[in-house]
Amino acid sequence: MTLDGSSYHHGGLRAALLSEAAAMIDEGGTSIVTMRALGRRLGVSRSAAYRHFADKSALLVAVATAGFDHLRNRLDAVGADAPGAGIDRLRQFGEVYVRFALENPGHYRLMYGKEAISREDLPELRQVANGLFDELVNVFQSYQQSGAIERQDPQLQAYVAWGAVHGLASLLIEGQILTDVDVDGLIRRTTSTLLDGMRAGR
Amino acid sequence: MTLDGSSYHHGGLRAALLSEAAAMIDEGGTSIVTMRALGRRLGVSRSAAYRHFADKSALLVAVATAGFDHLRNRLDAVGADAPGAGIDRLRQFGEVYVRFALENPGHYRLMYGKEAISREDLPELRQVANGLFDELVNVFQSYQQSGAIERQDPQLQAYVAWGAVHGLASLLIEGQILTDVDVDGLIRRTTSTLLDGMRAGR
DNA sequence: TGGCTAGTGTTGACATTGTCAACATTGCTG
DNA sequence: CAGCAATGTTGACAATGTCAACACTAGCCA
Fold first, then answer.
1. pLDDT higher at A200 or B70
2. Are A28 and A71 members of one domain?
3. What DSSP state is assigned to residue A17?
4. Which residues of B are less than 8 Å from A181 in CB distance?
5. What percent of chain A has pLDDT over 90?
6. Under 8 Å CB-to-CB from A63, ≥6 apart: which residues?
7. Using only C-alpha atoms, what is the Rg of chain B?
8. Residue B6: how many CB atoms within 10 A of its CB?
9. Rounded to an integer, what distance in angstroms lies between the CA atom of residue A99 and that of residue A25?
10. φ and ψ at residue B86, rounded to 5 degrees
11. Closest nucleotide (CA of B44 to C1')?
12. Residue A201: pLDDT band by 50, 70, 90 thresholds?
C-alpha cells in the first residue's frame, strides 16, 4: 500500500481496529464502540471490520484478550521486581491488579463481564481468564509452603482473594465508593485484612 | 377500565411495566429488555411506557430501586431472626447478600453497574445504594463496640467487607468460578477470612 | 345530565445499529 | 503478466429508542 493513507487497502486494519477499539473503550466504555464509529475513526467503511472479525463480539473478545496480556505483564513485573515469597509481594499483586482496573475500566469490565460478549464467544474468553487464575493458585500454593499463610485448599484461597480484590475494583469502577475515600489506603486495608485472615489458623 | 383486558386504557401499566421488566431481566439479562418487547408482552404499544417513564434508563432505575428494596428486606429479615451482635449474624448478612445476587443476577448487575443506566440517572440510583451501605457501616460500628472486631474506621471496614462479598457475587454471576466449586463453602470461607482478618488486631 | 380536560395509549416516522450479499480493488503467485 | 485470494465498499434490511401527532376515555364541573 501507499503511505499517504489514500490506498484502497488499509494495510494493517486488524491491528488498527484492536487498538482503536481499545482506545474508545477506555474513553467512554464499551457502549460507544460501534462498528460504524470504528470505521469512521479509521477512515474505513462500516463493514470493513468483518473481513477480520466474525462479528462485533469476536472483536471485543480480541480486545479483552489483549487486556489480559497487558494485565499479566503488569503482574509478572511485580514477580520479577520482588522475587521470593515475602508477604509484601502478595500484597503488591493485589495493588497492581486494582490499579490496572482503575486505569482501564472499560477493558476490565469487558474482561470480566458478560454483557457485551455473545454466549458462543464467552468460553474462549473464560479460558484466557482461567490461565491467569491458575497462576494465582500457584502463588498461594508456594506461599503455603513457605509458611506465610494457613494451609488450606489453595484454589479456595485464591477465589477468596480474587473475589475481594475484584470486588474492590468493581466498586471503584462503578462509582460506588465515595470520592473522598483514600483509595490507596482502602486497597492496602483490603489486602491486609485478607492476609491477616489467612494467617489466623497458621 | 373493563376487566377483560380489551379496554383502551390498561389501568395499571406502570406497575405492570416494572414487574414485567424485572421478570425479563432475570430471564435473560438487561439486554433483552426492549421497549418494544415489553409492550408486546403486556399487549400494549411500543411507546406506551413513555407515559410513565422518561426513557428506558428511567425505567431501569425504577427496576433497580425495587431490587434494592427487595435486598433490604432480605437483610432486615436476618437482623430480625438473630438479634444481637453475634459474629454469626455478620456472617449471615454476607451469605444472604451473595445468595440474593445469585438468585437475581440481572437485577444485581443493574443495581451495581453503570452500563445500562444513563449518566443523569446514576446519582439517583447511587443514593439508594448508599442508604444500604450506611446501614452496613452502622453494623460494623456496633460490632466494634461489642468487641467482636478490631477498632478501626468502620467505613473502611464496611468497604472491605462489601468489596469481598460483592466481588464473590460478581465472579459467580459472571461465570468466572468453575462450576464444580462448592459455592456455599466458598461463601463461608470468604466471610470467615474477612472476620478473622478483622479480629486480628483486636 | 352533558361536555371538557387531562391522562393514557397508538401510529407514523426518523436516525442509529449490526450484519449480509453483491460488487470493487489490489497485492501476490504462478 | 494473468488471475486469484484477500481486502474494502455500497446497498439493503430488520431491530431499536424516541418523538410528534393523533385517538380514546375517565372523571370533574356546569
1. B70
2. no
3. H
4. 155-156, 159
5. 81
6. A18, A21, A22, A25, A107, A110
7. 20
8. 8
9. 17
10. -65, 150
11. C9
12. low
d(C-alpha A200, C-alpha A148), whole Å: 10
Residues B41 and B112 in one domain: no
Mean pLDDT, range B19-46, rounded to an integer: 96
User: In the structure, what pLDDT confidence band is assigned to residue B8 with cuts at 50, 70 and 90?
Assistant: low
| Residue closest to sugar C1' of C9 by CA | B48
Q: Identify whether residues A36 and A92 lie together within a single domain.
A: no
Q: Tell me the whole-structure pTM to 2 decimals.
A: 0.93
- Which of A16-30, A140-154, B68-82 is most confident? A16-30
Question: Closest Cα of chain A to B8: distance in Å?
Answer: 36
The mean pLDDT value for B84-112 works out to 91
Contact A167, B165 (CB under 8 A): yes
Domain with residue B150: its CATH number is 1.10.357.10
Grid cell for residue B190: 470468604
Domain that holds residue A191: 54-199
Alpha-carbon dihedral angle through residues B98, B100, B105, B109, given to the nearest 10 degrees: -70
Say yes or no: B115 and B162 in one domain. Answer: yes
C-alpha cell at B76: 432486615
Could you tell me which of B84, B76, B199 has the C-alpha nearest to residue B147?
Answer: B199
The model's pLDDT over B188-201, given as tens digits with 9 standing for 90+, comes to 999 999 999 998 65
For residue B7, give the nearest of B46, B49, B53, B44 by alpha carbon.
Answer: B44
Q: HSE of A43 in the Cβ direction (CA atoms, 13 Å)? A: 9
Residues B35 and B68 in one domain: no
| Maximal C-alpha separation, chain A | 67
B33: left (phi over 0), alpha (psi -120 to 50) or beta: beta
Half-sphere exposure of B138 (CA within 13 A, CB side): 7
B 26-45 residues, CB < 7 A, strand D: 33-37
* B43-67 confidence digits (pLDDT tens): 999 999 999 999 999 999 999 999 9
The residues of the protein lying within 7 Å (CB) of strand C read A 1-2, 7-9, 33-37, 46-47, 50, 55-57; B 8-11, 13, 39, 44-48, 50-52
**C-alpha cell of A152?**
488450606
